[in-house]
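queue> pop job 88
queue> type: inverse folding (structure -> sequence)
queue> payload:
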């Protein structure tokens, strides 16, 4: 069966920094994969490499069976740090609607009724409809994060890549978003980078731990050993309602 996502032996370097070392990963259609790991472990790099923003020095990336550079369908992406030019005088509704501009091929096409309907539904679900006329420049950090998620969802992508999408959100908003993601996951493959494992353990289907190397991939049964290999530093972790604190020291760094 064609996998939604397949990485084979993917190595990424930034000049002399090795960010990903021979990563192998696959995600079936409608997987909900959480990627965890320490700061600098390569999580954002992994998503950027899947998107083709970063080019690996070796390896292969396939999305629904196609080389990632050949894959022309929309991929939903919410970056960790938005480079969104906040000074640009554009409203929340404009930003969400822009998610409907598939592939960015026709930026000046007029929106159709369907585009307004889909964007409107997503804004309702994320409870940002009341903000729709507001310039994005005046949004709070959490509001902007919801708007960027709404834009990603408006594209109705088959693959959704989320880089800490709930980092600035209050716990009620987080829960709402996880419920929305659960619904969307019925027909969308989701790769979610998060440090918020406690909140998501009942939503995700698989988990990968990344610290240059991808140490583990499978069902979210997280053993101390896996966490130790991945983090090698103090981590508070609550998996399946059982709090762990793992305090062992670092292993060696992966080399490219
Ligand atoms: N544009 C860049 N140029 C040079 N080095 C980079 C660049 N982006 C990332 N790096 C380096 O690559 C490594 C992986 O960074 P990355 O941002 O992928 O980590 P991360 O797992 O997303 O971390 P965090 O949890 O802090 O978001 C780090 O050592 C980082 O310093
Ligand atoms: Mg990151």
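queue> result:
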């Amino acid at each position: 069966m064609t996998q939604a996502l397949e990485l084979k032996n993917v190595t990424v370097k930034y000049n002399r920094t090795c960010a990903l070392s021979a990563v192998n990963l696959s995600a079936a259609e409608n997987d909900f994969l959480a990627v965890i790991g320490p700061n600098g472990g390569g999580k954002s790099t992994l998503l950027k490499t899947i998107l083709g923003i970063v080019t690996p020095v070796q390896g292969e990336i396939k999305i629904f069976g196609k080389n990632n550079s050949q894959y022309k369908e929309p991929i939903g992406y919410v970056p960790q740090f938005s480079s969104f030019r906040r000074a640009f005088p554009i409203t929340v509704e404009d930003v969400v609607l822009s998610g409907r501009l598939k592939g960015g091929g026709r930026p000046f096409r007029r929106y159709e009724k369907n585009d307004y309907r889909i964007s409107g539904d997503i804004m309702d679900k994320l409870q940002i409809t009341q903000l729709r006329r507001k310039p994005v420049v005046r949004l709070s950090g959490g509001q902007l994060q919801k708007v960027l998620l709404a834009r990603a969802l408006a594209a109705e992508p088959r693959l959704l890549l989320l880089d800490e999408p709930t980092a600035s959100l209050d716990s009620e908003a987080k829960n709402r978003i996880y419920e929305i993601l659960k619904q969307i996951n019925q027909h969308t493959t989701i790769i979610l980078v998060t440090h918020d494992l406690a909140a998501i353990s009942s939503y995700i289907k698989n988990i990968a731990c990344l610290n240059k190397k991808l140490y583990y991939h499978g069902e979210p049964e997280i053993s101390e050993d896996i966490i130790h290999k991945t983090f090698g530093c103090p981590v508070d972790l609550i998996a399946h309602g059982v709090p762990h604190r793992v305090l062992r020291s670092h292993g060696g760094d992966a080399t490219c």
